[in-house]
Amino acid sequence: MRTLIALVLALALPLGAAAQQRQYAILSLVGDELTIVHREMTTGTRIEKNSEVKVPLGSASLDRAMLLAVDEAVRRAEPGAKPILLAPRDPRLFDAAMRSLDAGGIPAIYEAVRPVVVKANATHLILVTKHRHRAMLKMRDGHVGSGWLTGLGFYLDQGSETKGSSISMTDAERGFIAPYTYFNVALVEIATGKVLAQQYVIGSSTNGVVSGTIGNAWRALSDEEKDAQITALLKQEAARIVPQVLAQR
Question: So where are the chain's domains?
């Protein structure tokens, strides 16, 4: 029995040591812009469409928030881990990440970021990129939304003026503004470029829903409130999804 136990320990120790030697690098490519999506109803019809306005961000505040949120989640999941945070602002990397949504996926993005990543002397990359999905904004009684959403932004619905201020109106009918965070988290082995695991997030916040905003959804929140709400949502979703990705490997 002692011989068997010794053999099991001998086999287990190298695996444990290998796991401890993992060095993570974290790279976020989601915070170059916000997309403001405005739901519109075509006059005289029941056809819905969306208009979009892309707002370039002059700072890296949202990518920094993502990096710190992922870093904290990794340290919680693997005590002793000391991730390396990467914050390149090269527009070509963000462009490559957007193109990969239509062709190539994570392997295509990895090829674009490889020159930055290999300099970190890490073994594994946690790569956060934008994700595209049908609009699903959380409400108290389910989900609403039309069209597709990508990355980070706000979804606006001006409400239905035909129903006035009836107390029987739903939140969506009263109009609302909701932050959304649609992103993907992938774990990549740096030496080979192999994608070991990935999960996507389609996050939106009921805390970001402001009722009674018919015709005035965008101004229902101050700039400070918008920033606080989308940052909080981003952190919440990163804390939830990163442990799931690490557990898949």
Answer: 23-248
